[in-house]
Design a protein that fits this description.
By secondary structure, the chain is an alpha+beta fold. Helix content is 24%, strand content 35%. The chain has one domain (10-63). A hairpin with a 2-residue loop joins strand 1 and strand 2.
């Protein structure tokens, strides 16, 4: 997540196994309190970099989250 709006706004631990990628921790949106997150991509058949890219994209959405 380097050089993205999620850089330094995600505090989380990664985990990987064969065909499983995970990220769990906290996201700090630009507009408020931290959000807890847990993302697991399981049994994927695409290359691991695509699963990681999807997780990164979700994190970018979370840091852009605005509470009502």
């Amino acid at each position: 997540m380097r050089r993205t709006k999620a850089e330094r706004r995600i505090l989380a631990k990664t985990g990987t196994r064969r065909h499983v990628s995970a990220l769990a921790g906290y996201a700090t949106p630009t507009s408020g309190k931290p959000l807890a997150l847990s993302i697991v991509v399981n049994n994927y058949t695409a290359p691991q970099r695509e699963a990681t890219a999807a997780i990164d994209a979700i994190c970018e959405l979370l840091v852009g989250f605005e509470r009502p």
